[in-house]
Write a structure and sequence with these properties.
This protein is an alpha+beta fold and about 525 residues long. The chain has a domain of about 150 residues: 2-Layer Sandwich (Heat Shock Protein 90). The protein has 13 helices and 18 strands. The strands form 4 sheets. It has an 8-stranded mixed β-sheet. Strands 9-10-13-11-12 form a 5-stranded mixed β-sheet. Strand 17 and strand 18 form a beta hairpin. Helix 8 crosses helix 12, helix 10 packs antiparallel against helix 11 and helix 11 packs antiparallel against helix 12.
């Protein structure tokens, strides 16, 4: 009988490439994440340039002997997704690439054990039990990285402190304490080479607190702030940072899909604990498909609304470009809007891409190329496994709307009496003298991707239709672009709406509803 063999070196190198930062930062942040998930309140880091080592110890729960044994297996973890930062059990294994030895000591109750581990060849990473070296005094876990490169930045105290402040900024910012206090009731402290890292509040001359509400929750699901300066900010401080359980996941304006007039002068930080269940394997992004993707898009939509409201209050909101649309395209937009609105009732995960207007009317903005992307509808988040129906104060009193904030709402211009509600995303020209408030639902745009076999792709909450595809060119020649665009939208939305086995059924249902909308035989239209 044969057996499966693994090229361990090749696998670890592929994992390293999947993480967004340098391997030194990845190792450091992964070990700290493990310490936080164990309930640690104090994390000590000691960088020793003479010994070319970095030692990280915590006072968390520690591990029993059987868990330390499993710790050396790839993708072995006792954690559950959404209950902490880590869940896959692969991040710490990257240390085998950069270290000549990894020594791990853990102490829990009467169990006090340690192991030594290293990469011996492409296919072997042996480990053995060793006497505890004494990293852990009473309870917790300690990891010593004996680095292969004596000049590694992990031996520099300044580098270690900077990485901790960049990746775990919310834990060192008093403004995030109210949100993180539930998960870390005793707080978290960092000590680098014997010196305690002090907490630092935002020092910008102008700050604005943010509170993000989702679903029917009266209690905020996320807290944070925006800050603005009169001079350009350092590159690493520009844009909004999104974090979960104290770990920064993304930073900038691109992930949010909106941007102020002066993006280089505005930054922000938002702590959203519930998004931990939507993290990707490398914890550098969020999942875009299935119910976890819908939860992320709903949260992103709520954040967009609050951030845009504050930017408008500051007079820094960017006006979206407005271009005239052909009449045929306007009809297609109305049909797709109706289809998505109706399908969102049968496919709840699509609700994150349908926008609610005042009075309960939903809107699907379809913007031109360069228009704003957005996405999110709070019931999808409220119905996700992270937030089951009935959680918190669901149904108590009159719930705040999605994305509501404690900040005063920005003044929004109202359309003149008798006028129809404007399309969103800059799809249609506004009446003279009126500035249309931006909409944050699904957007459909066009791009050129020669050689790509996909008709369209979903990025965040925008469907990009590939105009370079031979099928699109044939559709344009035969004047059937409408059907081609509808098919592209259906194929792009299918992975988000349903499981892979049901994608074909979703596409056929989508096209059937679109056909009814085009022919005017929609059941809803008949009923009315």
């Amino acid at each position: 009988m044969a057996e499966t063999r693994v090229d361990l070196l090749h696998l670890l190198e592929d994992l390293r490439d999947a993480y967004p930062g340098a391997i030194e930062e990845t190792m450091l942040t992964e070990i700290v994440a493990n310490a936080l998930d164990s309930g640690a309140t104090l994390i000590r880091l000691t960088a020793d340039s003479a010994a070319a080592s970095l030692t990280i110890t915590d006072n968390g729960s520690g591990m029993p002997r059987r868990d330390l044994r499993r710790y050396h297996d790839l993708a072995a973890s006792t954690k559950a997704r959404g209950q902490g930062i880590g869940f896959a059990g692969v991040g710490i294994k990257l240390a085998l690439l950069a270290c000549r030895e990894v020594v791990t000591e853990t102490r829990r109750g009467k169990a006090h054990v340690a192991t030594s581990w290293h990469l011996a060849s492409r296919h072997r990473a042996p480990w053995k039990w060793v006497p505890p070296p004494g990293f852990v005094a009473e309870q917790g876990t300690g990891v010593r990285l004996n680095l292969a490169d004596p000049l590694s930045p992990l031996t520099d105290r300044g580098y270690v402190e900077g990485a901790i402040r960049r990746h775990y900024e919310p834990l060192l910012d008093p403004a995030c304490d109210p949100m993180l206090g539930e998960h870390y009731p005793r707080g978290v402290s960092f000590e680098v080479n014997g010196e305690l890292l002090p907490k630092q509040a935002c020092r910008s001359p102008e700050t604005a607190p943010l509170a993000i509400h989702t679903g029917r929750r009266r209690k905020p699901s996320a807290l944070g702030y925006l800050y603005r300066d009169s001079v350009p900010l350092p590159e690493e401080q520009r844009g909004v940072a999104i974090s979960t359980y104290g770990k920064i996941i993304k930073r900038g304006w691109d992930w949010l899909g909106i941007s102020p007039h002066a993006p280089e002068r505005i930054g922000g930080l938002i702590e959203f604990p519930m998004l931990a269940a939507s993290l990707t394997l490398n914890k550098g992004d969020f999942i875009r498909s299935g119910h976890r993707g819908a939860a992320y898009l709903a949260a992103r939509k709520a954040i967009q609304e609050v951030v845009q409201r504050q930017l408008a209050a500051w007079g820094d909101a960017r006006e979206q470009p407005e271009t005239a649309r052909p009449r045929a395209m306007r009809s297609l937009e109305r049909d797709l809007e109706r289809v998505l609105r109706e399908l969102s009732e049968g496919f709840p995960l699509l609700a994150s891409l349908v926008e609610h207007r005042r009075g309960g009317q939903k809107s699907l903005p379809l913007g031109p190329k360069g228009g704003p992307g957005g996405g999110g509808f709070d019931p999808a988040l409220a119905l996700s496994p992270m937030n089951p129906p009935g959680a918190d104060d669901a149904g108590a009193g009159v719930p705040p709307s999605a994305g509501s904030s404690e900040l005063p709402p920005a003044v929004r211009p109202e359309p003149p009496p008798g006028s129809s509600p404007p399309m969103t995303g800059g799809a249609l020209p506004t009446p003279r003298g009126e500035k249309r408030p931006s909409r944050l639902g699904l957007a459909v745009q066009f791009e050129e991707r020669p050689g790509d076999s996909e008709l369209g792709r979903l990025v965040e909450s925008t469907v990009y239709v590939n105009r370079a595809h031979p099928a699109y060119r044939r559709a344009a020649a035969s004047r059937s672009e409408g059907y081609h665009i509808a098919l592209s939208v259906a194929l792009a939305l299918a992975p988000l709406a349903v499981e892979p086995a049901r994608e074909h059924a979703f596409v056929t249902t989508f096209l059937a509803r679109w056909g009814e909308a085009v022919s005017g035989t929609s059941p809803r239209r008949k009923k009315r």
